[in-house]
Amino acid sequence: MKKEALHRLKTAEEEVEKYFRSNKKRLLQLAGAMASKILDREIAASGDSYLELVKPLLQEYRQGGLVVIGCHKHQLRKCRENLFALKKINRDVEYVVIENPDLEEDQVLVEYQNQIIDLDMKNQIRGMVDELVKLEG
Question: Residue-wise pLDDT tens for the chain (137 aa)?
């Protein structure tokens, strides 16, 4: 009876491993979709905008110049309201917030010295999921 129980346990473990191998891509994509939803809810609940995610990045820009923040028209007011806080973070640069009609509502682009940084968290999460799928492939 003990051998039979061990055999069944081993068979169950093999089936679980087979299931995860065959569904790994879908499970990773599901985890990414869940992360996006959680992020959206947290930002909506806190009342912060996606601009809050930009602050650590802006602290690194110490060479002066112009930072252009592009956002969807629905985020424009919030982004402009945060300009004073951004200037406190880094007084070495000038900030301009512009509407970019090509962006989705939760997407923010930061342009600084020939660099364009896409802060769309959904794209970032999708990119991580794609990398994980490649690594696991």
Answer: 888 888 888 998 998 888 878 888 888 888 888 888 887 777 666 656 566 666 777 777 767 788 898 988 988 888 888 888 878 877 888 889 999 999 887 788 888 888 888 877 777 788 888 888 888 76
Structural domain that includes position 13:
2-136
Alpha helices in 1-137 (DSSP H): 2-46, 55-58, 73-81, 83-89, 121-136
Answer yes or no: pTM beyond 0.90: no
Overall domain count for the chain: 1
CATH number at residue 45: 3.30.2320
Q: Are 49 and 79 in contact (CB under 8 A)?
A: yes
